[in-house]
Amino acid sequence: MTVQAEAASDNACHIPRLDFELTPGCDHACAHCYNVWNADAGDPQAGYDKSGQLRTPELLALMTKAVQQTNAHHITLTGGEPLLRKDALDVVDHACSLVSSVTLITNGSHVGPAVAARLARAKVSAVQLTLLAADRAEHDRLKGAVCFDDTVRAAVELRAAGVQVQVCFVAMHENARYFADVLELCFVLGVRSISYNRMSPTGGAIHHVARLMPTIEQIEANLDVAERLGRAWGVHVATAMPIPPCLIRLSRYSWVKFGFCSTGTSSPNIVIDAAGNVRSCNLASGVLGNLVRQDWADIFANPYQRRFRRNVPAMCKGCTYERSCQGGCKESAFATFGDHSHPEPLLWLAQHPQWREEVVDSVRQVFVPLARLRGPRAVGA
């Protein structure tokens, strides 16, 4: 019997899912990366402490404690690149022993036949890979690494081993036109689930807003593709980053499943890093507490999530969608503007198109693509 099944079902602090960031390390260099520890000095999210990474026994004990005290039934393992941890597959095994559903988010560069078979034996529910274009050169340029072939190979190996594969497409100004091709590649590879995430800049990504933030027109065109081709090919499309309904009439898209900010809801996207620090989501830099030193009930009592839920941009107050939409991604508003109540970048850009140029003066922008791609690394067994 799993720990989750043994835990009390009536827990006032119960949350259904947990994300564990196994390591801040990564061998790709995506300009759109949301990891908060990549913020530069002087940025609103600067100074996130990456020290104190737990060793294997302590990390496994932390996961057990987290599941026991939250009664979570789903775990997502992410990073950085989680498979860079030498004990990553042992952590996967442990997670699968604790809960009924486990998702691994990986860049695919470390998934060979042996790793795929190990994930299948552990009964991982799904592995999520990122595809930014169906064109090798364009995907690699946006990822800052030579990795397209690794990603496609990982999808093939995982499906051959019987592991469900999901694809994440991050929509940006420079790759939105490739979404139809990515959807087609997914269909050919036998992938039937795509997470469509429009860029939501946090961490170091705020320095690429002018170059990479998609337009509303690009997002709407992508949703048209998802509705038409996704339905025709049986490829399910869901959004993780919120798309404000005031910008696009979401009711037009019955095939697409839309998600909104979960902070402060009954199913928050609680994140725990490899030092035990707890945050309200993977875009948030504020630490609610540390589960190594505290119990979940004490961390759960932190008023941050409730205050966050009530704090919406002035322009959104009284809107029909205020409670569900919450003004889009408020953590990206804080990362970019230093204020959760400021309209987030997607909303601000829709109302102030000239801001794409003006942002250069307020947030240092990096326009040039990475001059050097990182080569492939050996695939672990």
Which features characterize this protein?
single chain; alpha/beta; 11-stranded mixed beta sheet; 15 helices; 13% strand; disordered N terminus; disordered C terminus
Spans of at least 5 consecutive residues with low confidence: 3-10, 368-372, 376-381
The helix fraction, in percent, is: 25-40%
Could you state the order of secondary-structure elements as H and E?
A: HEHEHEHEHHEHEHHEEEEEHHHHHH
Q: What is the SS-derived class?
A: alpha/beta
Task: Please state the overall shape, judged from the principal axes of the Cα atoms.
Answer: globular
Number of strands: 11
Number of helices: 15
On the 0-100 scale, what is the average pLDDT? 92
Query: What is the radius of gyration computed over CA atoms, rounded to a whole number of angstroms?
Result: 20 Å
Strand order of the largest sheet: 8-7-6-5-4-3-2-1-9-10-11
Distance between the termini: 29 Å
Largest sheet: 11 strands, mixed
How much of the polypeptide forms β-strand, as a percent range? 5-15%
Molecular structure report:
Mean pLDDT is 92; it is low at 3-10, 368-372 and 376-381. This protein has 15 helices and eleven strands. The longest helix has 18 residues, at 216-233. Helix 7 runs parallel beside helix 9 (216-233). Strand 2, helix 3 and strand 3 (101-105) form a beta-alpha-beta unit. It has an eleven-stranded mixed beta sheet with strand order 8-7-6-5-4-3-2-1-9-10-11. Helices cover 35% and strands 13% of the residues. By secondary structure, the chain is α/β, with parallel strands linked by helices.
